[in-house]
Amino acid sequence: MLLDEVGTYLVAQGVGSLGTTSSWRIFKGFGYPSTGRAIVLTETAAPNQHGHSAATLDNKAFQVLVRGPNISTAGAYSTMLTKGEAVRTALEAIGNESLSGRYYPMVVLASGPIPLGQDPNNQPLASWNFLALRSKTS
Fold first, then answer.
1. What's the angle, vertex CA 45, arms to CA 37 and CA 42, rounded to 5?
2. More confident residue, 22 or 49
3. Starting from the edge strand earliest in sequence, which strands make up the sheet with 25-28, in order?
4. For 17, which DSSP code?
5. For residues 90 and 92, what is the distance between their CA atoms, to the nearest angstrom?
6. Predicted structure pTM score
7. Alpha-carbon distance 109 to 2, whole Å?
8. What is the rounded distance in angstroms from the CA atom of residue 70 to the CA atom of residue 92?
9. Cβ atoms within 10 A of the Cβ of 110, count?
10. DSSP bridge partners of 107
């Protein structure tokens, strides 16, 4: 699955952790806690293949939502942006490599950062959207 592959890659790059004790936890999908720093990966709509059903690559798209520390923490917004840019740097470095057995010729930033204000717990939010080419089979 795309989110598993991207999440595992980000952990390997030291951007975050899938564990419960990390200060920056990575979550896949919508099941993430309401408080704490988080990097949330969700699949989004990708451009159509336009008649390339025989192609060996799929267009994929995903969003990275980054939630920083509470705004009572000095530099909360810049901390959140810095982590988001670390995610961006790691993902844009993907080129002609295998992630969990799937070939990725490239991952590119489609948009971002997109400031989303604060959540109900006064934690700043922003998102980055990415497009990826990914092999259909491993």
1. 20
2. 22
3. 25-28, 38-44, 57-67, 124-135, 102-118, 95-99
4. B
5. 6
6. 0.91
7. 16
8. 28
9. 15
10. 132
